[in-house]
Amino acid sequence: MSAQAADSGEARSPTKYDRLIAAAKKAPAISTIVVHPCDETSLRGAADAAEAGLIKPVLVGPADRIRGAASKHNINISGFEIVDTPHSEAAAAKAVELVHAAKGSMLMKGSLHTDELMRSVTAKAAGLRTDRRISHVFVMDVPSYADTVFITDAAINIFPDLDGKRDIVQNAIDLFNQAGFGALPRVAILSAVETVTSKIPSTIEAAALCKMADRGQITGGLLDGPLAFDNAVDQEAARIKGIKSEVAGRAQILVVPDLEAGNMLAKNLAYFAKADSAGIVLGARVPIVLTSRADSARARMASCAVAVLYADGRRRGAINAAA
Q1: CATH 3.40.50.10950 boundaries in the chain
Q2: What confidence tier does 14 reach under pLDDT thresholds 50, 70, 90?
Q3: Which of 48, 164, 198, 269 has CA atoms 20 to 30 A from the CA of 86?
Q4: Which CATH superfamily is domain 135-279 in?
Q5: pLDDT tens per residue across span 162-208
Q6: CATH architecture entry for 15-129+284-323
Q7: How buried is 149 (Cβ within 10 angstroms: 0-12 exposed, 13-18 middle, 19+ buried)?
Q8: Using N-to-C axis directions, what is the helix angle for 162-178 and 297-322, rounded to 10°?
Q9: Taken in order 249, 307, 61, 102, is the CA torsion positive or negative?
């Protein structure tokens, strides 16, 4: 999902994504398992990211189809390792196996369905689960907003409970901090209104999440909620409502009540506000680059850049912890 203007050929001034990609180019290239890249979009995304020095791809899927797509669309994959599998389901299972064998520090979705990939990732016995709930973050470049905006979760958890939302919030905060977006991100827990009411359960969960942060159950960010969307992102709207907090009016992470609300919000920003959106899945053993066929080439590169920065941040954190 990405604003169509991103590929329109119009001249654009440097954006948040350009700075993000530039930062990722300074990190070491990350070994990346690209799952079932059997069409032009997924193959070109991997090849472009490799050419930019972001990743070292390992292509997993039917070798003949991968080479055929590369030849048809004139994509150079001569320097990439190919692991042959008979079909997409086998490619997903093999990709997870390669991560367990330390052959890759990232996964990248190719031309298979998201559900196929995530079934292998979340498999209880052989998957990539951790003690965290797996969740998705849209990292959005909204031209009219000063900060890069995270929206979570708008792709995986349909109706998360309070414990699930705790993990969703913590995953997004960790991404923000470890990928170098800054420290102590401002996190808005969204609902339809900014007051707590028993008639709207998401307001109660928002208040509970803020109290969990007060008690150290969520760390690394500044939380406020419930906040309606307007007073989460507009300081004048927050002032009119009499809301005084470090988050209101300038949130950087927007935590939505459920997937349906989040998906609509992300798409509204993409098509009405001409925002670009990068996608990453967190909470598994490795970050997962999750893109859509509708994504622009620039948004795909940004998705990869976010995952590279996050993986590199985790690597450096592990080294520092061991020192």
Answers
A1: 15-129+284-323
A2: low
A3: 48
A4: Isopropylmalate Dehydrogenase (3.40.718.10)
A5: 999 999 999 999 999 999 998 899 999 999 999 999 999 999 999 99
A6: 3-Layer(aba) Sandwich (3.40)
A7: buried
A8: 90
A9: negative
